[in-house]
Amino acid sequence: MNAAIWTAIGLLAGTTLGTLFYLGARIDSMGGRIDALASRVDALASRMDAGFAGVDAGFARVDARFDALEARFDAHLDRHAG
Predict the structure, then answer these.
(1) Integer Cα distance of 45 and 52 in angstroms
(2) 3-state helix, strand, coil in the chain (%, to 5)
(3) φ/ψ (deg, to 5) at 12
(4) Residue 39 CB coordination number (10 Å)
(5) End-to-end alpha-carbon separation of the chain, Å?
(6) pLDDT string in tens for the chain (82-residue length)
């Protein structure tokens, strides 16, 4: 009877330790995948920042054109109004 109990305890302990080591390895591999995903997100963020810099330059060009049109319109009004 004692041998059966110790055998059951040994099997339970072995199974438990094996499961813990297996899960630890899986968690470590997930950490690597998460790190790779974080680097992809960082690369995407830098691409988006570069794209927004181009948008800001586009807004600056449009703003300059509006300023030029405003100056022309003011000059035209000054000629006709007096």
Answers:
(1) 10
(2) 100, 0, 0
(3) -65, -45
(4) 10
(5) 117
(6) 889 999 999 999 999 999 999 999 999 989 889 989 999 998 888 887 777 766 677 778 888 899 999 999 999 999 988 6
pTM for the model: 0.44
**What would the two tokens of residue 40 be?**
């992809």
Whole-angstrom distance, CA of residue 35 vs CA of residue 41: 10
DSSP code for 16:
H
Tokens of 28: 């470590």
Instruction: Round to whole Å and give the CA distance between 57 and 82.
Output: 37
How many whole angstroms separate alpha carbon 82 and alpha carbon 76?
10
Residue with tokens 């330059």: 57
Q: Which residue has the tokens 């680097």?
A: 39
